[in-house]
Design brief:
The chain is built from 9 helices and 4 strands; from the N terminus they run αααααββααβαβα. By secondary structure, it is of the alpha/beta class. It has 2 domains: 59 residues; 143 residues, CRAL-TRIO lipid binding domain (Phosphatidylinositol Transfer Protein Sec14p, 3-Layer(aba) Sandwich). α5 packs antiparallel against α7. The longest helix is centred in the middle third of the chain and has 26 residues. The radius of gyration is 19 Å and the shape is globular. Pfam families: CRAL_TRIO (PF00650).
């Protein structure tokens, strides 16, 4: 039986040609949101939808309109400013340490979440689930804002490096309503920010991590 041959990878010139076509297709939206009109941003969206310009255009348009509706399309002065802002919109933020650490030596943006120290039952009582969605989206958009600035300086595509610290995690920390909400947040973030995470590091992992990983692996995109 003959196997189907895979299409050869696009050449650099072909990629640039597709990106320019995509840019023209997205021109009305990019005029409205000019900070997203970068070679590397457009490339991320195109790759996410196998260079299908129409599908990528539809999805990116929806994502940017959603970000605008959440007032996420803004300039972010610094990670410290973002943390202060998140505290102002969500009481739970002060009980959820971590966040954007800044760029590594290569320019990739490091995002740390000490999930093991979170107390989900308490956090769920401190606000609405919609607050969690908004805070997560704003934090990730801030990561992308800093990422675009680094890419403009360095001249090549960069990514987010996500560090998940599970120190102090126990079975008592696994509160299913919070787990379901977190999985839904991951789905939303992958829809709004495709092809953004380069690596995920899990540190201080207890033996029970396989239980949690099986819960979330279905929503983790292959990079």
């Amino acid at each position: 039986m003959c196997q189907d041959e895979k299409d050869p990878p696009l050449s650099y010139e072909e990629k640039l040609g597709d990106i320019e076509q995509f840019r023209k297709r997205m021109a009305p939206i990019l005029d409205k949101y000019p900070s997203y009109d970068t070679l590397f941003t457009l490339d991320r969206w195109l790759r996410s939808y196998d260079n299908d310009i129409e599908e990528a255009a539809k999805r990116m348009t929806q994502a940017l309109e959603n970000l605008y509706a959440l007032d996420a399309c803004r300039e972010y002065d610094s990670a410290e400013w973002l943390n202060d802002f998140l505290h102002s919109i969500s009481r739970a933020a002060e009980y959820f340490p971590g966040g954007i650490m800044g760029p590594d030596k290569h320019g990739n943006i490091i995002l740390v979440q000490p999930m093991g120290r979170a107390r989900p039952r308490t956090l769920m009582r401190l606000g609405r689930v919609s607050d969690l969605y908004k805070a997560s989206i704003l934090e990730t958009e801030a990561c992308m804002y800093f990422l675009r600035k680094e890419e403009a300086v360095r001249g090549h595509q960069l990514s987010i490096i996500f560090i998940l610290d599970l120190a102090e995690l126990s079975l008592e920390s696994i509160y299913m309503p919070a787990v379901k909400a977190y999985i839904n947040v991951l789905n939303v973030l992958q829809y709004l920010f495709p092809n953004s995470i380069k690596k995920v590091y899990v540190i201080n992992s207890p033996s029970m991590i396989n239980v949690l990983f099986n819960m979330v692996k279905r929503v983790l995109s292959k990079v």
